[in-house]
Specification:
The complex is a heterodimer.
Chain A: H1 3-34, H2 49-57, H3 61-90, H4 93-115
Helix pairs in contact in A: 1-3, 2-3, 3-4
Chain B: H1 2-21, H2 26-36, H3 41-65, H4 71-92, H5 97-126, H6 142-154, H7 161-167, H8 177-194, H9 199-209, H10 214-238, H11 244-264, H12 270-293
Helix pairs in contact in B: 1-2, 1-11, 2-3, 2-12, 3-8, 3-10, 3-11, 4-8, 4-10, 5-12, 8-9, 8-10, 9-10
The chains are: A mainly alpha, B mainly alpha.
Chain lengths: 116, 294
Amino acid sequence: MNDGRLERSIGLVLGAGAIVSVCLLAVGLAGMGVAHVGPLDRPFPPFDLNRLGSDLSALKPAGFLWLGLLAVILTPSVRVLASLFGFAAAGERRMVAVAAIVLTAICLSAALGAGG
Amino acid sequence: MLELLLLIIGGVAAGAFGALLGLGGGVLIVPLLTLGFGLPFREAVGASLVCVIVTSSAAASVYLQRDVANLRLGMTLEMFTAMAALAGGLIAFMLPDRVLAVMFAALLLYVALTMARAREARGAAEAGGARNGAGAPQDDGRAADADAERETAATEPAADGGLAASLSGPGYRVRNLGRGVLGSLLAGIVSALFGVGGGIVKVPVMNLLMGVPMRVATATSNLMIGVTASAGGLIYLFRGGIDPYVAAPTAVGVFVGASLASRLSDRVDLRVLRLLFIAVLVVTAAQMALRGIG
């Protein structure tokens, strides 16, 4: 894959990620409006991956909000992963290593965040 | 319901201001949420990081498709911004809110000062005087582009030539990679501590120290911001520092505001807007400092 194609593909990944995230957040916001949930209501629903599926199937606003927020936060990681495959296909070993280190840093953040 | 609308409108304003002035919007979102809505500082930072990622993804998508951002340089520096953001995220949960508020006030003053100096430099250039240090992210880039290109042409390849050469782009040669790494580390910590993109550090470093033209530096910084904020954001996410009820409306508002601003930029007097923004930053910094101290 040449440079231009790789960068355009990664650009598409980022653009799609942003649009999907914002759409999910918008659905969650509409749900908040319907359920009369205020943004300053306390306590806010905690992030819990195990509850995400059930919240979504029950059409709870929190499910869509958390899925949207996850999509926001993970979009750059997906971009890095796509870059890694792109660089691997192009035989750019140094950039593959760079992408792998960036992904490792992101995973470490998740691990340290979850561990705290 | 009114609060929901106000958050969305606040996000639209922050996104539009940020996009028009070349900032990520984080410097506005944190004060909006803490001073305007009474949120704890860390929750405001968590929400701001989400907003910063959304705008970064949307903007970087366009920059990559137009072939403006330097993907290889961005990813190389991202290794350091991400690691530093990880550290910054952990530090943020150790420091008291008040200390963070005072440090944030100092950051706001720094941004205001940088913008004011860029304005003076531009005024001097327009008057035919000598140009100096027009390296702020909000600069229109022409003066700094010329400076960087002239310096690049005059500078011999750095000792890190092999790697730097492979990261260079058409018409410019990357140099001073070591300084770029230091700047990236600082930007990563600042991003995770205060919920900003860190472009205020990265763009001048890339442009003035590394010889990257302003347009490319801004685009590449935008690309990097997503990963940096994501590394910090994951720590906030897992440690309960992101309130979905606040982060979601603000992020949607910021996305809409930034999109609108790109269509309005030709019709807005940026000089007036910049002056207004500097005044807002100074007042906000004072309020933040008072909140921290008092």
